[in-house]
Amino acid sequence: MRMVESEKEEAPAVEAEGKVMRWSPYERVARMASGNAVVVFSVSGCCMCHVVKRLLLGLGVGPTVYELDQEKGGREMQAVLAHLLSGSPSTSASSASASLPAVFVGGNLLGGVEKVMSCHINGSLVPLLKQAGALWL
């Protein structure tokens, strides 16, 4: 499991036509999620996040883990993830934290703990991980 420290700093700036622009929380999530074969957005101390991370480690996957409570702009990214997971236009702070973990495989949103466990039980998780290049066996 790879804990990522680099995103804790200020949101990276992009220079376009002489103007410095900051990435939106959505753009940050998209860039972070596509960075590795398996990415888990988590919160320290969340038991369901721990379950998903342990499952992936047990399968032999070393996911990149972003602990959003330790990231600058983490609350905004949690709201983006809650929106992506729920499909609803508005989310409260409590529903944002309840939506974690959020798991991306091959840059695509797989889902939260229920979706990951359901894929594991029905046997579709390992093929997805292999297709993304997270497993070789």
Automatic annotation (TrEMBL):
InterPro entries: GlrX-like_pln_2 (IPR011905), Glutaredoxin (IPR002109), Thioredoxin-like_sf (IPR036249). It comes from the Eukaryota. It is found in: Cytoplasm. PROSITE patterns: GLUTAREDOXIN_2. One of its GO terms (cellular component) is cytoplasm. Belongs to the glutaredoxin family. CC-type subfamily. This is Glutaredoxin. The lineage of its organism: Eukaryota, Viridiplantae, Streptophyta, Embryophyta, Tracheophyta.
